[in-house]
From TrEMBL:
Domain of life: Bacteria
Keywords: Oxidoreductase
Oxidoreductase among keywords: yes
Keyword hit for Oxidoreductase: yes
Enzyme Commission no: 1.1.1.35
Gene3D superfamilies xref list: 1.10.1040.50, N-(1-d-carboxylethyl)-l-norvaline Dehydrogenase, domain 2, NAD(P)-binding Rossmann-like Domain
Residue ranges occupied by any 3-hydroxyacyl-CoA dehydrogenase NAD binding domain in the UniProt entry: 10-188
Full protein name: 3-hydroxyacyl-CoA dehydrogenase
Boundaries of every 3-hydroxyacyl-CoA dehydrogenase C-terminal domain copy: 191-288, 412-492
Recorded GO MF terms: (3S)-3-hydroxyacyl-CoA dehydrogenase (NAD+) activity; NAD+ binding
Species annotation: Futiania mangrovi
A biological process term (GO) from this entry: fatty acid metabolic process
Length: 502
């Protein structure tokens, strides 16, 4: 088996569509010889031509030397048939997602290449075990899941099937590095790592919407401004396509035994069935104009003409809340029975907090001071609250230049429960041995553009705090969806780092 880090190796790419072209390009840029094949008449030549055009554009932009581009052109071969894959040290299949098609193709490739040639599938959803089942040499069969667009997305998941050999897995890790990617080793599992790990972000956003806690625009704004996510869950779903993310959600949910932590909502299915698939259909969670801009992603900011509050009483305060109130010009004093009662619950809703502390729910204004509060602050109240207190506090906070989002009662507001759910699912992925803690973080940051990986989020919030939020969510809702991962629970209780794999 070739050492891809050192040798001048030859890689075959079967399938010259968008993904295949990307794999060809990064392989050439990594100094590899590439043979590209496509079953369509003229498909391989057309795909190779597109790759070379992109390489020429890199020369025009000054990011690639002309001599390097010429060398890449010389290392690219268009296959006339599968027999031209004979010299390959690895073959990467990148055809459409059909198990029987892939099985037949793998059997054909096995009949051509050497016994030490690795054969990898770029599948994003089919089990490697199912593909390898029909192969003679199962130890050399694995997954190599790239992300679109391949030249820009640095992550590649190396999927190890039940019979994939250590040598095969390590060779593909080296090949991924040679291609300029960041490889992570993942066990064969439904959705692999990124598609599994990304479920919490979207499905919890959908759950919060279902409870009428906040609108999609409000949730997106909170996650962007306070959580530093590049996109909120609803704009992300509309971008990737609900015809993509709903079926994936259902596959992962069913294949993991209908674990409630992976459950989506009826609204998600409704949009799918209605053909509202996001930007591609100009309607999804939002509606889009001809330029692809959402026309109704508004209403995240709470606007009020109330007189800003100048005094309040604090119930179970903390330093971050004290600083925010000071900046807003709200003096903290004793409760005279008239002023707003301001609190910063962690994992509780305003109702539970009021009952537990004895605070007057009509005057209670809950403020989320977790995450980044420099641009946006979330406030919420219990049912039956006197909203004049909320509006007065919101007006004072808005006076500091911050935007305010007012939501309905929710355990953990929006940001706390979203981050805790992401962290908890990451911990569960570590618990079932799908990948190492470090690779889980790397994959979600590179594959989904998360500001922090799931376990890093748990560390950022604190393991004990994350566990407490999950326990409050489970107790208040009575829903097994919020069952804490044993990985998180044990490390929080023992005071161990969440990344501790011991």
């Amino acid at each position: 088996m070739v050492d891809f880090e050192k040798a001048t190796a030859t890689v075959g790419v079967v399938g010259a569509g968008a993904m295949g072209q990307g794999i060809v390009q990064v392989s050439l840029q990594g100094g590899l010889n590439v043979v590209v094949h496509d079953a369509r008449e003229g498909g391989a030549a057309a795909g190779a031509e597109q790759v070379l055009k992109r390489i020429d554009r890199l020369v025009e932009k000054g990011t690639l030397k002309a001599e390097d581009a010429a060398a890449m052109r010389g290392r690219l071969t268009v296959a006339r048939g599968l027999d031209d894959l004979k010299p390959c040290d690895a073959v990467i299949e990148a055809v459409f997602e059909d198990l029987e098609v892939k099985r037949a193709l793998f059997q054909e490739i096995e009949g051509v290449v050497r016994e030490d040639c690795i054969i990898a599938s770029n599948t994003s959803s089919l089990p490697i075990a199912s593909i390898a089942r029909v192969c003679r040499h199962k130890g050399r069969i694995a997954g190599m899941h790239f992300f679109n667009p391949v030249p820009l997305m640095k992550l590649v998941e190396i999927i190890r099937g039940p019979e994939t050999s250590d040598a095969t897995a390590q060779a593909l890790m080296a090949l991924g590095k040679r291609q300029g990617r960041v490889p992570v080793l993942v066990a064969d599992s439904p959705g692999f790592l990124v598609n599994m790990g990304g479920r919490a972000f979207t499905t919890e956003g959908l759950r919060i919407q279902q409870e009428c806690v906040a609108t999609p625009a409000q949730i997106d704004a909170i996650m962007r401004d306070c959580g530093h996510f590049r996109m909120g869950p609803f704009e992300l779903m509309d971008l990737t396509g609900i015809d993509v993310n709903y079926p994936v959600s259902m596959i992962v949910f069913s294949e993991f035994g209908y674990d409630a932590r992976l459950r989506t909502t009826p609204q998600h299915k409704l949009l799918y069935e209605a053909g509202r698939h996001g930007r591609k259909t100009k309607a999804g969670h939002f509606t889009y104009d001809a330029d692809g801009k959402a026309t109704d992603a508004t209403g995240a900011d709470h606007v009020t003409d109330a007189t800003p509050a100048t005094a309040c009483a604090v119930v179970e305060g903390n330093d971050r809340l004290a600083s925010l109130l000071e900046e807003a010009g709200i003096a903290v004093g004793a409760d005279d029975g008239k002023v707003a009662l301001v609190a910063a619950p962690m994992g509780e809703d305003a109702t539970t907090f009021a009952v537990r502390t004895g605070a007057d729910p009509k005057r209670l204004v809950a403020v989320d001071v977790t995450g980044d509060t420099s641009r946006r602050v979330t406030v919420m109240t219990a049912p039956g609250a006197d909203l004049s207190h909320r509006d007065a506090v919101a007006a004072a906070i808005a006076g500091t230049g911050r935007k305010v989002t007012a939501i309905k009662d929710s355990p953990g507001f929006v940001l706390q429960r979203m981050r805790a759910m992401i962290a908890n699912l990451g911990c569960e992925i570590a618990q079932i041995g799908l990948a190492t803690p470090a690779d889980i973080d790397t994959a979600l940051q590179l594959g989904l553009n998360y500001p922090l990986g799931p376990l890093q989020i748990a560390e950022d919030m604190g393991a004990r705090t994350t566990l407490a939020i999950m326990e409050h969510l489970q107790a208040i809702t009575g829903d097994d969806r919020y069952r804490p991962s044993l990985w998180l629970r044990r490390r929080a209780l023992l005071g161990l780092p969440v990344h501790d794999a011991g």
